[in-house]
Model the fold of this input.
Amino acid sequence: MRPKKVALLTAGGLAPCLSAAVAGLIERYTATAPDIEIICYRGGYKGLLLGDSLKVSAADRAQAPVLRRHGGSPIGNSRVKLTNVKDCLKRGLVREGQNPLQVAAEQLVRDGVDVLHTIGGDDTNTTAADLAAFLKKNNYELTVIGLPKTIDNDVVPIRQSLGAWTAAEQGAFFFERVVGEWGANPRMLIIHEVMGRNCGWLTAATARDYMQRLARTEVAPGLGLSRANLSVHSSRRCSARKKCSYKKVDTFRVPPRQTPRISRSSSSVSITPCSVRSAARAGWWARTRSAVTRCGRSNSTGSRR
Done:
């Protein structure tokens, strides 16, 4: 049956693509089925449980492309799981004795929603699956469609989740902004942390993208600006009394996108060719999920794909 009304929500942590995904869905529905009504629940599943939504007007549809130029989520996110009754009760989203799944289902019925689009990561889409199963079991005529996003690229079996590509690009772009710090103090070890739930792919992809950008960058070796000074390096060993022994990395092996689930221990670690005060410090970072590069410490984020 052709839907008459669809609803959108974004949930989980922020990632590149949320705003663009909302824009894309609104644009696509407007182009192919302009008669279908669109609403957005504010704050993810929280808004669904509270019945807090906004209607997308004709003027809003015309302005949807603007969202592609912004990060975050214009309709808001929250980390609410419909199967976590205790948490929903604590947040005041349901009353004692209520089942959040049933509350959500009844709200969708009251709003006349035929299709619910959930834009989020693993938890969001797991919750979407739970909601879809509940709807089917209790004979609700509703369809739930999950759109996977996460910078970690670890939603199996999705080849490339929304947000992952841009997060790597932005991490590499940030690296370029601070890499010149090596000239101010060649003895310092600056940490750039690429974080996430399973961040091995993102760490490797960030380093790969940076090295690809560096290969296209013009340098002046005679004036001290060489690619060697700007490159990412992998650690062999470090000594408190000697300079780091390192190997220049020309090519990064990025885990294939079709097998994206990577453990924390798979994260890549790079150490710049400089003296460090403590070998223990370098060893500690080698056991973490972080990328140790010639870059400032930061959480990599971006805002497009």
